[in-house]
C-alpha cells in the first residue's frame, strides 16, 4: 500500500526533519542553512508535507509587520520562506500546495501582501501562483535582515523579490 501524503501544520517533532529537508538544498548553496533553534522558534510558521513518517516538503509563512510609510498606514507584510520539496517528489504539485497553504493562512490572518526572495530559477514557479517580480528597493530594508548570513551577500547576490497582494 502506498504511504499517505498529508499536508499539515508542523509540530515540535517535525523540527529535525524540516532541518534535514532544508539542509539538503543549503549544502548545494540553493537555500540558507537554518539552525535547529531557529526552526523550533518559528515552528508555528511551518507547513509540512508528510509521506508515511517522512517529511517530503516544508514551507513557512513569517509575519514581518507593517511597511513604514511616512504619514499613512503601511501594508502588513509577510514572507513565504524555507520552501523545499525533496527532489524525488518534484513536479507533483507539492510546492504549489505548500505556497497555497501559506496564502490561505495569510488571508485568514488579514495580511495584505506576501513576498518571497528566491533565485531566478524559481521565478516561473512563483509567477504561476500569482506572484509578481518587484524591485527589491521597493521592499522594506528589514527583509534583508537574514542576508548577512548568506555567503553571496552583497556582491554576489542572486535573489529575486516577488510579491503577491492578498
Ligand atoms: C521550487 C520547488 C519547491 C517546487 O516544488 P514542486 O513540488 O516541484 O513544484 P510543483 O510541482 O508544485 O510545480 C508547479 C509548477 O511549477 C513548475 N516548476 C516547479 N519548479 C520550477 C522551477 N524551479 N522553475 C520553473 N518552473 C517550476 C512545475 O513544472 C509545475 O508546472 P506545471 O504546473 O505546468 O506542471 C522545488 O523545486 C524545490 O524544492 N526547489 C529547491 C529549493 C528551492 O529552490 N526553494 C525555493 C526557495 S524560495
TrEMBL record:
Might you report a single GO cellular component term?
cytoplasm
Spell out the protein name for this chain.
N-acetyltransferase domain-containing protein
Output the lineage of the source organism. Bacteria, Candidatus Nealsoniibacteriota
A Gene Ontology molecular function term of the record: L-glutamate N-acetyltransferase activity
Q: Which residues cross the membrane?
A: none
Q: CDD domains, per this entry?
A: NAT_SF
Organism, by scientific name, is Candidatus Nealsonbacteria bacterium RIFCSPHIGHO2_01_FULL_43_31
Q: Which PROSITE patterns match?
A: GNAT (PS51186)
Q: Name one GO biological process term.
A: L-arginine biosynthetic process
Could you list this entry's UniProt keywords, alphabetically sorted.
Acyltransferase, Transferase
Give every N-acetyltransferase domain span.
5-166
Which SUPFAM superfamilies has this protein been placed in? Answer: Acyl-CoA N-acyltransferases (Nat)
| Matches recorded under InterPro entries | Acyl_CoA_acyltransferase, GNAT_dom, NH2A_AcTrfase
Amino acid at each position: 500500500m502506498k504511504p499517505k501524503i498529508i499536508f499539515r501544520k508542523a509540530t515540535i517533532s517535525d523540527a529535525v526533519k524540516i532541518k534535514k529537508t532544508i539542509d539538503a538544498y543549503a549544502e548545494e548553496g540553493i537555500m540558507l542553512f537554518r539552525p535547529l533553534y531557529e526552526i523550533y522558534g518559528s515552528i508555528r510558521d511551518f507547513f509540512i508535507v508528510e509521506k508515511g513518517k517522512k517529511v517530503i516538503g516544508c514551507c513557512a509563512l513569517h509575519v514581518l509587520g507593517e511597511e513604514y510609510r511616512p504619514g499613512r498606514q503601511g501594508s502588513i507584510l509577510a514572507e513565504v520562506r524555507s520552501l523545499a520539496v525533496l527532489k524525488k517528489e518534484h513536479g507533483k504539485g507539492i510546492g504549489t500546495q505548500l505556497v497555497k497553504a501559506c496564502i490561505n493562512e495569510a488571508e485568514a490572518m488579514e495580511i495584505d501582501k506576501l513576498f518571497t526572495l528566491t533565485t531566478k530559477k524559481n521565478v516561473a514557479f512563483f509567477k504561476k501562483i500569482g506572484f509578481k517580480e518587484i524591485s527589491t528597493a521597493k521592499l522594506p530594508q528589514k527583509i534583508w535582515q537574514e542576508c548577512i548570513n548568506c555567503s553571496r551577500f552583497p556582491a554576489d547576490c542572486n535573489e529575486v523579490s516577488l510579491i503577491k497582494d492578498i
